[in-house]
Every structure is written in structure tokens, then in C-alpha cells.
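stage 2 :: seqdesign
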């Protein structure tokens, strides 16, 4: 599904412009992960997780970033999976953590071009189709709906009680596309999001509230990713607490 979006988005943003960033991000992430997996498992394994991390990084960064920015960011994401863990899973979404961390190193731009904002509005059909397909496959619709509902509710209330012009951009491209891509493909990340619908609702709501707070307090380009990292911490705490309860039994 990400390959479909990359192909469509590249047509709008320009293949020659995005190709170096995509190639560097994906190849760097996979090269590092395949070596780590070889050392850890004593066998060669296809690094599919690194492939996804590299694609996410490339699709969110501005295509005008230098290729090595994507490569370094993707490698940071891959390494974070093995450094910050709880039980048998990584705590943070690798791409989200890396994009926030390297923002302060490279002062990166984040255009979310992979969410198809450069294409006509009809392209939203492609984004919805691929997003809903993935969401249903991983059974995370409750989390997606909770996030989108809380996210747009908070900003709609802000528009009514405050200055509407300050949040109007969130209802237009590229911010609208970014929120949908984020909800469908990152809030649903299986290793870092809860499996049960009840917990997904809490997780999605935390992501929305934290993203809103980051937008209002920091105004940083990575406000969506920051919200996800906060929810990742909550999910890691929930897993840890559940593990302690089971051991106590």
C-alpha cells in the first residue's frame, strides 16, 4: 500500500526530486537492520520493518531535503527499535521518534508529500482506499476513529472559541492529508499500538490530545509525531503494568 502511495505521490511531487530521498532512506535503513538481524539471529532475514521505516521517513520529510538527511533519520529510527524496548516490542514508532530527534539536528522540513497533497482532491480516494485497507487488515479501526474524532473536535472547538484562521490550515492540504495518512498508517502501527478496541480508543484519544497540545504550545511541524510518541509511552506503560500483574499471579 505504501508503494502505491509513493508511486502516485511521486507523479505529483516529481520522480527526479523524490527518488534520491526515498532510495537513501530505504537502503540505509535496510542495510543497517539486515546486519543487526544477522548478528542477533545468526541468519539472514529480510528487514521488512526497516523498509517500512525508510518509506515513512522519506514520505514525511520534505523532498527538498538532502538525501543523507533521510538516510541518517531512517538509521536512527531502525536503531531505536533495539535500544528502547519493553517486553518484546519497541516502545516508540521508529519513524516518528527519528523524525522528531533529527528535526533538531538538521532543522528538517516535513511536507508529508507521500500523503498525496500535491495531487488533485480526487487523490484522497486513493489515500482513503489504501488507508482503510491497511486499517482493516490490522484491525485498528477503533484507534483511527478515536484519533480523527478527537483531533478534529478539539480544533473545531478552538476555531469557534478562538481565532479560526490560525487552525484553518489543518482542514486543507497538506495538513488534512497528513492527518489522514498519520491516522491510517502510523496510529495503527502494530508493535506500538494496542490490539484491543477499548485500548485503541484510549490510545487514539491520547494521540489526538497530545498532538493538539503540541500544536498549541510548541507550534512545531512535528506536532502529530509528538502526539504519537506520547501515546507510545502510555502503551508501553500499559504493557508493563499488564506484565507485572501476570507475574504477580
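stage 2 :: out
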Amino acid at each position: 500500500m505504501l508503494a502505491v502511495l509513493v508511486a502516485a505521490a511521486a507523479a505529483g511531487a516529481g520522480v527526479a526530486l523524490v527518488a534520491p530521498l526515498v532510495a537513501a532512506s530505504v537502503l540505509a535503513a535496510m542495510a543497517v537492520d539486515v546486519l543487526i538481524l544477522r548478528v542477533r539471529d545468526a541468519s539472514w532475514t529480510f528487514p521488512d520493518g526497516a523498509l517500512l521505516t525508510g518509506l515513512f521517513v522519506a514520505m514525511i520529510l520534505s523532498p527538498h531535503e538532502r538525501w543523507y538527511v533521510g538516510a541518517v533519520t531512517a538509521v536512527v529510527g531502525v536503531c531505536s527499535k533495539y535500544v528502547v524496548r519493553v517486553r518484546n516490542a519497541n516502545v516508540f514508532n521508529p519513524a516518528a521518534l527519528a523524525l522528531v530527534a533529527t528535526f533538531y539536528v538538521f532543522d528538517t522540513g516535513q511536507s508529508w508529500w507521500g500523503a498525496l497533497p500535491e495531487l488533485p482532491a480526487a487523490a484522497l480516494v486513493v489515500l482513503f482506499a489504501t488507508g482503510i485497507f491497511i486499517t482493516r487488515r490490522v484491525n485498528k479501526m477503533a484507534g483511527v476513529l478515536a484519533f480523527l474524532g478527537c483531533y478534529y473536535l478539539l480544533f473545531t472547538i478552538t476555531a469557534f472559541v478562538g481565532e479560526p484562521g490560525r487552525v484553518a490550515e489543518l482542514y486543507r492540504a497538506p495538513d488534512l492529508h497528513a492527518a489522514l495518512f498519520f491516522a491510517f498508517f502510523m496510529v495503527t502501527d502494530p508493535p506500538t499500538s494496542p490490539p484491543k478496541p477499548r485500548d485503541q480508543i484510549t490510545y487514539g484519544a491520547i494521540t489526538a490530545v497530545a498532538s493538539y497540545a503540541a500544536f498549541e504550545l510548541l507550534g512545531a511541524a512535528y506536532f502529530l509525531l509528538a502526539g504519537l510518541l506520547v501515546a507510545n509511552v502510555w502503551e508501553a506503560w500499559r504493557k508493563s503494568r499488564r506484565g507485572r500483574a501476570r507475574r504477580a499471579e
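stage 3 :: structure notes
- The mean pLDDT is 95.
- The two ends are 42 Å apart (CA to CA).
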